[in-house]
Specification:
heterodimer; A: mainly alpha; 15 helices; B: alpha/beta; Rossmann fold; 6-stranded mixed β-sheet; 34% helix
């Protein structure tokens, strides 16, 4: 009975994704010790994993808000690389090189333009969804290819490389995972945490506050749970939806910036498929595609779970093809577990004394 | 004419976690009779039906149909055993044709192939039995009226050759004249030796259609007998386990001066040029058939539906027709569709309660969750919501308690003009009485209540004035004392 109670507590707590992550890390660490180099949990690999997770997590923060509001954004991937491409062209065609006077202005302009591109993408999505009432899936399916096309026009259908000396130092170091302590910001608190991870944590904290402690946040949940109830309560539904997508667009732009910092080039077609990774992180973290439910902590864990598996498979020299299958399987299992926690079908009641059902 | 028991339920128990929903319930249905299953919300009726329909499994106890044990593992089992369910919310595929709906789940003919032609005589016959002989089997179900859809559901039970039909609140969405039609069909089914279990909150309805009754309370049988041997008071006191002195408690209140004026309000297709003057501290009833435009009227007054002409003014000041403006002017609205519109089911009680007036708890855009919780809990106590915790999801509450949350919301919003669409729909007698009491208290504090209902006895008992709607027009407004049920119906159908 005691064992049951503990199991139930773990099962029903919000910490489910954390336990899942811990389990996965442990599994791979043991396997890695046994059959491979034993580097899986080394500080270096840990930094690499955290950085990769950050690349998914930042756009996934916006996606979490969208999914809580019962929406979806399939265009997040191509919008992200569109933003990265815009940033790359700014540096490629910059009139002044790093270190020269006026370069700061180039950087500010480039970053602003990137953020503007992202929020514009979001605004287009949100505007179309709330004005035309076409379902988000279809609208963003359309804008997904549109953003790809726009990116290809900007990049002249190739990959945009900027001269290394034209990229500001902080941006080059943004996703740095090496062992040179001087390239980390650290703030004198954490040793060698990638700057991308610091940004992710700050943003995540801000979104948690936004969702929990503002009227806007509660309205997002209300719309996701029942749009007609929200309308009846005087919530400005079109405005809220547009705001959510636009804000998510800003996160996508920041994701694009990090993507550029990571690979140092801009290729619009890189984004195809990224949106699914982002959505998967939200879903792994307990977000419900029918809206009203989702958690930022969960999403962060979701992003970490994906990268932990990918990195673990790489360490164990598991073929990429199998990695895909494993991640796909985990996503489905996670959602089934999540449904058990919330829906609790008949047979599940026998397994565990679950929460009381109303008659 | 009454035959052998065809459905027997013996000592059925069912628990959900620590909650015992059924504690050894017995039930016996004979061929050719209607058994009324009566009980408050939460008494276990729905659980019992779910067990009979195979949606849940009993923890212990037996069921049998005829002489054979009945242990449904799912809806298809139930169907094969000759049991059909007709739910409160219709269970039809609206995009499909009548015929396809009737044959849905039917045993295939021709090795899994659906040969519609071969089934057509059966379909025709079933439709004729339910009085839909004129309806084409290829008509699309979603285009039919609610009443017709209800009949189609019954026809589906006939096509499946059901011997037992379970009806769960079948009249809750039917207009009066179709209720009579439904009853005559039920009588025909009796002739065919079909046994029926009939669940309804309306005692007078039960009286009209049922032969016997069985009352459940807290998951146990508390009484049964012949319908004609029991009067209403007996049944009600069995249901609630105490004497209910008054089904319609009233609180003395005196309407003041007119202050809300609805002028020539018109929408598409309804309402049509409606004029109302509402007084402070008044309960204004709106009667009429389902589809007469009652819901459309109060939705348009609230700004939820678009108005093409006319105006709404409060204290002589014109209020623009957006929800936000109407909310600001003091209007509050309770939807008849509690499940989809009235409440956000997945959200917590607190969230639902405070959604329409969150501004009170913010300082510089930041919500004070503690203060919000305290205010919400105070209100929950006032309207006596039974819940485990205030952050529990609304979907876990019973219908009556959900309705109380919806009412608490417009109280929290501090609305002065409460527009209520069927606020007592689907809630039990005890809770209904509490709601009437609350309405009276609110009117006594000077609030104006517009009370839309299909249940005439409550309107006649609770309201100060009643207006009757028909085809989108507000036909006649009189003081309640000048109305009788017959008079209301006469105006409603003309």
């Amino acid at each position: 009975m005691n064992f049951r109670r503990i199991l139930k507590a773990i099962f029903q707590s919000q910490l489910g994704p954390i336990f899942a992550l811990a389990f996965i890390l442990m599994l791979f660490a043991v396997a890695d010790q046994r059959w491979s180099s034993g580097n899986y949990l080394s500080p270096r690999n840990f930094r690499v994993m955290m950085n990769s997770a950050a690349l998914i997590a930042v756009p996934a923060l916006g996606m979490t808000m969208i999914i809580i509001a019962a929406g979806i954004d399939l265009s997040a991937g191509t919008a992200l690389t569109l933003c990265g491409t815009v940033l790359a062209t700014q540096f490629k065609y910059a009139a002044v090189a790093a270190g020269e006077p006026g370069f700061a202005w180039v950087v500010i302009q480039a970053v602003c333009l990137t953020l503007l591109t992202g929020s514009l993408c979001g605004l287009v999505n949100g505007g179309l969804i709330s004005l035309t009432k076409v379902v988000p899936f279809i609208v963003t399916l359309g804008t997904m290819t549109i953003f790809l096309g726009v990116g290809q026009i900007i990049s002249k259908e190739s990959t945009v490389y900027a001269d290394e000396k034209n990229i500001p130092e902080w941006l080059s170091d943004f996703c740095y995972t090496g062992s040179n302590s001087e390239r980390y910001l650290n703030f004198g608190i954490f040793p060698n945490v990638p700057n991308s991870v610091l940004l992710t944590l700050i943003l995540a904290f801000a979104v948690v506050l936004l969702l929990r402690y503002t009227v806007f946040g509660r309205n997002v949940f209300a719309i996701g749970s029942s749009e007609s109830t929200a309308r009846l309560c005087g919530v400005n539904v079109p405005f809220t939806i547009i705001a959510v997508y636009t804000l998510a667009g800003v996160f996508v732009a920041l994701g694009g910036l990090m993507y550029y910092a990571n690979v140092k080039n801009g290729n619009p077609s890189d984004g195809m498929g990224k949106e699914l990774e982002i959505i998967a992180a939200v879903v792994l973290g307990g977000g419900s595609l029918s809206g009203g439910r989702g958690s930022i902590l969960g999403t962060l864990m979701g992003a970490l779970i994906i990268t932990a598996i990918r990195s673990g498979c790489a360490q164990l020299s598991i073929l990429n093809t199998y990695t895909h299958i494993i991640i796909g399987g985990i996503i489905i299992v996670a959602v089934i577990v999540d449904q058990l926690r919330h829906g609790s079908p008949e047979w599940f009641f026998r397994l565990l004394p679950a929460k009381t059902a109303e008659n | 004419m009454r035959g052998q028991p065809i459905l027997e339920v013996n000592r059925i128990c069912k628990a959900f976690g620590p909650t015992k929903a059924l504690r050894g319930v017995d039930l016996k249905v004979r061929a050719g009779e209607v058994l009324a299953l009566i009980g408050e919300n939460g008494a276990g009726k729905s659980t019992l039906l779910k067990i009979l329909s195979g949606a849940h499994r009993a923890d212990s106890g037996q069921m049998s149909i005829g002489d054979r044990p009945f242990r449904p593992a799912g809806p298809s089992d139930t169907r094969q055993s000759g049991v059909a369910m007709i739910y409160q919310e219709l269970n039809l595929a609206p995009e499909l044709s009548v015929e396809d709906n009737l044959l849905l789940g039917a045993r295939g003919s021709g090795g899994g192939l659906l040969i519609r032609k071969r089934q057509r005589p059966k379909v025709r016959e079933a439709l004729e039995t339910v009085g839909l002989g004129g309806l084409s089997p290829t008509a699309i179900v979603g285009e039919q009226s609610i009443a017709t859809q209800q009949m189609i559901e019954i026809a589906r039970a006939l096509v499946a050759e059901a011997r037992i039909i379970l009806l769960d609140e079948p009249t809750s969405s039917l207009p009066q004249k179709d209720v009579a039609r439904l009853f005559s069909i039920i009588n025909d089914l009796k002739e065919r030796q079909i046994g029926m279990v009939y669940i309804s909150h309306f005692l007078e309805e039960v009286r009209e259609v049922a032969d016997r009754y069985a009352v459940l309370r807290d998951g146990e049988n508390v009484g049964e007998g012949k319908m004609e041997d029991a009067d209403d008071d007996t049944i009600v006191s069995l249901m609630v386990g105490r004497d209910v002195k008054n089904l319609f408690p009233t609180v003395p209140h005196s309407p003041g001066e007119p202050w809300v004026r609805v002028q020539e309000l018109t929408g598409f297709p309804y309402p049509k040029k409606v004029n109302i003057e509402l007084r402070r501290g008044e309960i204004f009833g709106i009667a009429g058939l389902v589809g007469a435009g009652r819901t459309e009227l109060i939705r348009t007054v609230f700004g939820l539906d678009h108005s093409s002409a006319g105006s709404v003014s409060v204290n002589g000041k014109l209020i623009p027709s957006t929800i936000r403006e109407r909310l600001k002017a003091g209007f509050g609205f309770i939807s008849e569709d509690r499940k989809n519109e009235g409440l956000a089911q997945d959200l917590s009680i607190i969230d639902n309660l405070t959604l329409s007036r969150l501004g009170d708890y913010t300082t510089m855009g930041v919500l004070n969750l503690n203060r919000r919780k305290q205010a919400a809990e105070k209100l929950l106590k006032r309207v006596q919501v039974k819940c485990k915790a205030s952050d529990q999801a609304v979907s876990e509450l019973s219908g009556g308690n959900q309705q109380k949350v919806a009412i608490a919301r417009i109280l929290h919003q501090q609305a002065d003009i409460l527009l209520m669409d069927e606020p007592t729909k689907g809630i039990d007698v005890g809770t209904k009485a509490e709601v009437y009491q609350m309405l009276g208290e609110l009117a006594a504090t000077g609030k104006t209540i517009v009370f839309v209902s299909s249940y005439l006895p409550e309107l006649l008992a609770v309201c100060d004035r009643i207006g009757v709607m028909s085809r989108g027009e507000l036909r006649d407004v009189r003081d309640t004392v000048d109305w009788t049920e017959e008079e209301v119906m006469r105006v409603a159908i003309v």
